TrEMBL record:
One of its GO terms (biological process) is deadenylation-dependent decapping of nuclear-transcribed mRNA. The keyword Zinc does not apply. It comes from Rotaria magnacalcarata. Coiled coil: none annotated. Its main location: cytoplasm. It is found in: Cytoplasm. It comes from the Eukaryota. Transmembrane segments: none annotated. Keywords: Cytoplasm. This is Uncharacterized protein. Belongs to the DCP1 family. InterPro entries: Dcp1 (IPR010334), PH-like_dom_sf (IPR011993).
Length: 55
């Protein structure tokens, strides 16, 4: 856990993936191929955030 806030600029070229097997986890891939993930406290928040980011 970092004490610093991580900021990622959202770009149209990014790919987002929410897997039903991991209901509270969102993976995303940036331009250079790096893959990151976001864990949600509530699994109910993940699908909505994923759809919002895909727009």
């Amino acid at each position: 856990v970092s004490r610093e806030t991580f900021v990622q600029i959202i770009k149209p070229s990014m790919e987002f993936k929410h897997s039903p097997n991991y209901e509270a986890f969102l993976q995303y891939k940036v331009d250079v191929g790096d893959i990151y993930g976001i864990w949600f406290i509530s699994k109910n928040d993940c699908p909505g955030v994923t759809e919002c980011l895909k727009r």
